[in-house]
Amino acid sequence: MIPVNQVICFIVWFITGISLDKVLACSVYMVDRVTDDKLTASSIYGSSYTANKARLSSNGWSPDASKSNPWIQVDFGEPVTIMAVVTMGLADTALVEFVKKYMVKYSNTASTWSPVLHGTTNEFIANSDQTTAVTNVLPSPVVARYLRLYPTACNAYCSLRFDVIGCEVPSTTTSATSTPVQTTTTPVQPIITTTDAPSTTTTSPASPTETSISTPLVLTVTNSTQSGLCPCACTQTNFSTTQQELQERIDDIVQKLTVPIRTTSKYVRSKTSAHDSRPGAVYVGSIGIVILCVFSGFIVLPDLFTVLRYFYSTMESKCNVNIFKKCKSFKNYV
């Protein structure tokens, strides 16, 4: 069975058109990588339900029921790319507690928070039981250091376990391209190529050669510390997509993939008979017609002969001596 996080990545790749290898690279469960002190909450129910127990592999976090607007927060230590959120209910099967809906907010300062826009209420549909892991893909990837979940609808208490699917934001990368150049005993000149990197420059030193063919190293320096999933030398792309635009794109894909049944080759073949002009096919058809005619003759001719004999005997019985000559002439005619 394909893991859930890979299925999510395939969906994001299909809808947004992101390169497949970049999507698969951004499918890491991030909460398992942080220390316990990076998990904090607005409140806790008790020592058995602290924020650091909110991991999927642990028991679960429960807020103080007397406090309103509960939330749980994870600090990744640095900005990361966030693709999706996974939630489960409390691990204690004796207590049927889970979150039905929640909102997601993110920040880079822990003082100013931005909501993840989703539908009209920004709420994500979460769990319907406490044992099933439910994954919600964000409408567009988010780059942030802090992430908070705000439960808005719960079963019994707002207890949950969660994780975040994403990856680290790629740092400045340097790509090297080897380009053969035809020369005749000439030194290789230094080549410097920069792309939107004001403080980063890479040079290849000049080194004279005495060969007929030399291969200079062309270095391209690109700054790819940008939002989204593009740890490569590519242009900035806005992956922000509203729910309506996403639905329109899905409908368009479905329409393009739908084929009317009347245009299928199976349907056309069932309604038409193709002409076969091969000589062998013509000969076989002609022989078949001759055989059918012969068999038909053997069936029809005896009946026809019997009918003629019946008419002959009938006319003969009606003839008398006075009109014998006429009957005789009729017999001769028959």
Automatic annotation (TrEMBL):
Database matches in CDD domains: FA58C
One of the Pfam families matching this protein, by short name: F5_F8_type_C
Membrane topology: Peripheral membrane protein
Signal peptide: 1-25
Assigned GO CC terms: endomembrane system; extracellular region; plasma membrane
Domain F5/8 type C: 19-167
Location of the region described as Disordered in the Swiss-Prot/TrEMBL record: 191-212
Protein's recorded name: F5/8 type C domain-containing protein
Organism whose genome encodes this protein: Magallana gigas (Pacific oyster)
Lineage: Eukaryota, Metazoa, Spiralia, Lophotrochozoa, Mollusca
